[in-house]
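User: Show me a protein chain along with its predicted structure.
Assistant: Here is one chain, sequence first, then structure tokens.
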Amino acid sequence: GTDTYLAGGAPIANDITAAANRVIYGNVSLAGVAYAYAFIYSAFNNHQSTPAENLTQVGEAQGTVIAVRNLGVSAFALYTERGQFVVTAQGGSAPFRVDFRSAQPGPCSPAAVVAVGEGFHYYMGTDANFYQFDGTICRPIGTRIYAKTQASLNPNLRYRTHGTYDRSNREIHW
């Protein structure tokens, strides 16, 4: 099927996830207009419909939306350039509540965020440090190797950073 947003087709987005029976698009472009500080979500139980009124602005103070990742059945993490949010499903006319959690540096790219088990995310930040986010606290975990990664990360190419989880060895590689 096709998404029925405006003239047809799903929104263009930097990242995508699913939560609360909806598809979530982060940092979107709709009808040629960029909404870098926002996310939009599909209709309930209908991934083929993404109404324009479902656009939600997060605010510009923490920077553009970099990534969205599922945190469980009814919530997702929203990562910006300078902050982490938890977006939780709720009843009523606004199906999601957005809660600011931390002002740690955000991920280098959507692909730099690695989900390890339900509700645990690890990422390489724009400052070349590594972080763990569990939906409550975002903590730096790469202090011992920070100087080495900072020296080797080209800030002009950080958007290419990606990570993967090796389950058999319980290791994350960036």
